[in-house]
Amino acid sequence: MDNSHPFRIDSNARNWGGQPSSQGDKQKRRKLKLDFLLQCLKAGELANARQAYVALLNVDHSIVDDPYLSKIYTALQNSDLYSAQKLGLLVETHNHLPNTHQPSASKDKTSMQAKTPNTFSTSGIKIDLSA
C-alpha cells in the first residue's frame, strides 16, 4: 500500500508569504507599537511595557540601535519604571520615531531662510544680511 500523498507547491512566493507590506504600512505599525509602549509607561504597567517593547522590536529590529529606546529597554529589564517613564516622556515630547527621518530636500527656501540668522557678529562688528 502506498502511503505517499501527492501535493502541489505553487512557485509564486505571494502564496507563501502573503502580500508584501508597503513602507507606509510598516511605519504605521511601528508608530502604533511605539504609542502602545508609551501608553503602558504612562500607566505604570511594567509587564505590559516590556511586552510592548518586544512587540515593537518584532516590527522593527533596528530600534536596538536607537539610544532612547535602548535605554528604555535597559530600564525595563532593571524594573526601573521611573527612568523608563522619564525616557518615554522624552521620546514623546520630541516626537521621536526611530528610522523615520524625512529627506531635507523637501523643505522650501523660505523655511530654511527663517532658520538662518540674519546678522553675524565678527570681532565686534555686526553684519546685517537681511537685505
Write up this protein.
This protein has 6 helices and 2 strands. It is mainly alpha-helical and 131 residues long. It has a domain at 23-96. A two-stranded antiparallel ribbon has the order 1-2. The longest helix has 21 residues, at 23-43. It starts with 12 loop residues before the first helix and ends with a strand. Residues 99-116 have low confidence and may be disordered.
Q: Which structural traits does this protein have?
A:
131 residues; mainly alpha; two-stranded antiparallel ribbon; 6 helices
Summary?
This protein has 131 residues and is mainly alpha-helical. Helices cover 54% and strands 6% of the residues. Mean pLDDT is 74; it is low at 99-116.
The class by helix and strand makeup works out as: mainly alpha
Net shape: flat
Low-confidence stretches: 99-116
Level of helix content?
40-55%
Q: What amount of the residues lies in strands? A: 5-15%
As a whole number of angstroms, the C-alpha radius of gyration is: 24 Å
Number of E-state strands:
2
Separation of termini?
A: 95 Å
Topology:
Elements (H helix, E strand, L loop, with lengths): L12 H5 L5 H21 L2 H14 L7 H11 L3 H13 L15 H7 L3 E4 L2 E4 L3
Antiparallel strand pairs: 1-2
